[in-house]
């Protein structure tokens, strides 16, 4: 009897009872949270994240940027001890948004293009917020300063690069010497499968955002003290954590919250890190280190480039709908141009 009640079962049963309790006791808070979550998905996640996810999948499946990989391969091998195909993962992981880097890593590993050790190490430092969120949403929308957003984004990128450099010392030389398989689809097939695969992926991300939005609204109704509520929200959901701390905490603290990502982001990338057989405790530890390191870097940058935040603007938490970044627009246009030329170069003359 007691053997059947394992620790995992106890946690699952407890979670079910808490969920039922919240659903029946706070139906209006749950409804309000779901509505807010849907707005976040429609106005922010779909227009800013989905194009990057399609682009990243197309890059991996078509292997259209192979010449660029080879040109940057010496740098990638020297800094991170990663193969040339990891160049796209590292770049898109820095600018594409939280799940993009992890998803690309899982795809490369499943296709046999990188080893398990390389995939695990990539997942440790290629999960980052994109410029659309950090600069536009947090910097401009919440802090009223694009300069603050740029400094936070630079701090998070530097922190990730440093973690990547540290990860090279944990590489498996024997495993890295294995031959990496080549994997390439035709341009049209790569584009078609990229769109189809990422529709399912974006729906999963939106589901987690809606779920955590409902949870944070319930926590808001529980009469916690302001400090306890702020701490809970900050570790649960990164967007609300940033908006809650924007008018109360210094910029390095907000940077640390983004660097950690929140459990909502952890749930979004969990299936991808599991595909690489990376233990969650190691991923969690990496997120904590990334948050702390990015905060230190942000503090140092602010001493050199001070930022004045207007208090009247700190309460502005509504981001302009469809606030996508310029890199996203340029990336999509570039992908279309590359695909057109790639198809044209392979066209047979009768």
Task: Provide an overview of this structure.
The protein has 16 helices and no strands. With 350 residues, the protein is mainly alpha-helical. The protein has one domain (27-309, 317-343). Helix 8 (146-167) crosses helix 15, helix 10 packs antiparallel against helix 11 and helix 10 packs antiparallel against helix 14. Mean pLDDT is 82; it is low at 311-326.
Would you spell out the secondary-structure blueprint of this structure?
Elements lengths: L6 H19 L1 H36 L3 H15 L5 H10 L2 H13 L5 H10 L5 H12 L3 H22 L5 H4 L10 H34 L5 H11 L1 H8 L5 H10 L1 H14 L4 H25 L21 H20 L5
Helix pairs in contact: 2-5, 2-10, 2-16, 4-5, 5-6, 5-14, 6-8, 7-8, 8-13, 8-15, 10-11, 10-14, 11-12, 12-13, 13-15
List keywords for this structure.
single chain, mainly alpha, 16 helices, 75% helix, globular
Structural class: mainly alpha
- The helix content is over 70%
Radius of gyration: 21 Å
Residues in β-strands, percent = under 5%
Give a count of the beta strands, DSSP E runs of length 2 or more. Answer: 0
> Which term fits the overall shape?
globular
Number of discrete domains? 1
Order of helices and strands: HHHHHHHHHHHHHHHH
What distance separates the N and C termini? 74 Å
Average predicted confidence as pLDDT: 82
Q: What count of helical segments does DSSP give?
A: 16
Largest sheet: none
Which segments are poorly predicted (pLDDT under 50) over 5 or more consecutive residues?
311-326
């Amino acid at each position: 009897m007691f053997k059947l009640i394992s620790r995992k079962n106890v946690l699952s049963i407890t979670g079910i009872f808490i969920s039922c309790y919240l659903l029946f006791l706070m139906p209006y808070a749950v409804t309000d949270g779901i509505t807010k979550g849907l707005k976040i998905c429609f106005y922010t996640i779909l227009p800013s994240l989905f194009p990057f996810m399609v682009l990243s999948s197309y890059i991996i499946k078509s292997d259209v940027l192979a010449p660029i990989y080879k040109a940057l391969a010496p740098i990638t091998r020297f800094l991170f001890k990663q193969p040339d195909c990891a160049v796209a993962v590292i770049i898109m992981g820095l600018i594409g948004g939280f799940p993009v880097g992890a998803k690309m890593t899982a795809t490369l590993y499943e296709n046999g293009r990188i080893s398990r050790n390389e995939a695990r190490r990539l997942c440790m430092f290629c999960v980052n917020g994109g410029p659309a969120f950090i600069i536009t949403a947090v910097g401009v929308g919440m802090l009223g300063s694009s300069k603050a957003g740029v400094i936070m984004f630079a701090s998070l990128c530097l922190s990730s690069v440093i973690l990547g450099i540290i990860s090279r010392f944990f590489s498996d030389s024997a495993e890295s010497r294995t031959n990496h398989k080549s994997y390439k689809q035709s341009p049209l097939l790569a584009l078609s499968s990229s769109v189809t695969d990422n529709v399912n992926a974006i729906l999963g991300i939106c589901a987690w955002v809606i779920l955590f939005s409902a949870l944070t609204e319930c926590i808001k109704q529980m009469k916690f003290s302001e400090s306890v509520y702020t701490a809970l929200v900050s570790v649960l959901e990164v967007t609300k954590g940033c908006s809650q701390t924007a008018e109360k905490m210094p910029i390095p603290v907000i940077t640390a919250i983004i660097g950690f990502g929140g459990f909502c982001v952890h749930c979004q990338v969990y299936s991808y890190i599991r595909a690489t057989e990376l233990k969650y405790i190691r991923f969690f530890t990496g997120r904590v280190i990334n948050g702390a390191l990015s905060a230190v870097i942000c503090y140092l940058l602010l001493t050199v480039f001070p930022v004045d935040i207007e208090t009247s603007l700190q309460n502005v938490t509504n981001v302009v709908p469809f606030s996508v970044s310029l890199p996203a627009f340029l990336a999509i246009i570039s992908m279309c141009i590359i695909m057109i030329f790639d198809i044209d170069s392979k066209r047979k003359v009768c």
